């Protein structure tokens, strides 16, 4: 079952993560970073880096680029810390635990997020196993898709009351980062331009489906499994796929994106795990 495989991969990521958690002073800053990194999670972004590379080269040695995979989890954690802030979504709980700004302070949470984002790129630059050309391309892909032309831009659209382009928000806030992780795996595995494009499009479509499913879970999910309140989007009058298209149509749209994602990669060398990950995205309860 893919759930068991992903659980094993999550444990693998967590094992390596321990080696890369930064230490230093002032202690409270590094405590906040460690607290947020260890709060749990699916680790889907680093897993996608690994699995996208393995889709092209089944015997590739992940130790050569595990630091790059871990860097994507640092960036994801930064985004969650900032997303939870009072100025953004103002959440008290994340994965069943107090959010970073509730556990520490708003100022420390902001700095912890800043630190994780910048340290992620430092970590990539320190990799000794990939060529400078590859590292530069990875940094370019990642910085573009999590910055103003990706995740940051999408988050800005999400918090603006007069910005109603749901497709722009979901593509940029969520899908482009996931797309970047798949594209990075392609670069690591010496993909041809065609193979890289296929993995990039796979990531884009599973990313959109992932966010649509998150919208659905906010309406119909189990709070005890999610580790946070549901119906937050309704309370804040935020636009979501269910608010525009309804529950059933939103499910259909998510399934369509998954089918499109699979169509891009089904002819690659070892696509089975990525296909199962795609299918899992629209069956998960958390």
UniProtKB/TrEMBL annotation:
A biological process from GO: terpenoid biosynthetic process
Keyword Magnesium: yes
Keywords: Isoprene biosynthesis, Magnesium, Metal-binding, Transferase
CDD domains assigned to the protein according to its UniProt record, in alphabetical order: Trans_IPPS_HT (cd00685)
A Pfam short name: polyprenyl_synt
The organism's taxonomic lineage, starting at the top: Bacteria, Pseudomonadati, Aquificota, Aquificia, Aquificales
GO terms of molecular function: metal ion binding; prenyltransferase activity
Natural source organism: Venenivibrio stagnispumantis
Entries under Gene3D superfamilies matching the protein: Farnesyl Diphosphate Synthase
Name recorded for this polypeptide: Geranylgeranyl diphosphate synthase, type II
Keyword Metal-binding: yes
Family note: Belongs to the FPP/GGPP synthase family.
């Amino acid at each position: 079952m893919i759930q068991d495989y992903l659980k094993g991969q999550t444990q693998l990521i967590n094992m390596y993560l321990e080696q890369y958690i930064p230490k230093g002073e002032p202690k409270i800053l590094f405590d906040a970073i460690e607290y947020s990194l260890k709060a749990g999670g699916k680790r889907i972004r680093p897993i996608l880096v690994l699995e996208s590379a393995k889709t092209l080269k089944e015997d590739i040695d992940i130790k050569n680029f595990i630091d790059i995979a871990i860097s994507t989890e640092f960036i994801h954690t930064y985004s969650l810390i900032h997303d939870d802030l009072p100025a953004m979504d103002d959440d008290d709980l994340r994965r069943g635990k107090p959010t970073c700004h509730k556990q520490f302070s708003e100022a420390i949470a902001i700095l912890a997020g800043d630190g994780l984002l910048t340290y992620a790129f430092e970590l990539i630059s320190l990799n000794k196993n990939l060529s400078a050309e590859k590292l530069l391309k990875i940094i370019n892909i990642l910085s573009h898709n999590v910055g103003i032309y990706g995740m940051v831009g999408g988050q800005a659209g999400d918090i603006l009351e007069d910005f109603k382009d749901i497709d722009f928000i979901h593509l940029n806030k969520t899908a482009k980062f996931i797309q970047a992780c798949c594209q990075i795996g392609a670069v690591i595995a010496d993909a041809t331009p065609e193979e890289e494009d296929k993995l990039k499009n796979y990531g884009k479509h599973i990313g959109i489906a992932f966010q649509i499913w998150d919208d659905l879970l906010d309406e119909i999910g189990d709070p005890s499994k999610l580790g946070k309140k549901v119906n937050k989007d309704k309370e804040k009058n935020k636009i979501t796929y269910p608010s525009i298209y309804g529950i059933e149509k939103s499910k259909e749209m998510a399934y369509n994106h998954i089918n499109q994602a699979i169509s891009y990669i089904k002819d690659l060398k070892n696509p089975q795990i990525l296909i199962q990950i795609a299918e899992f995205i629209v069956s998960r309860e958390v």
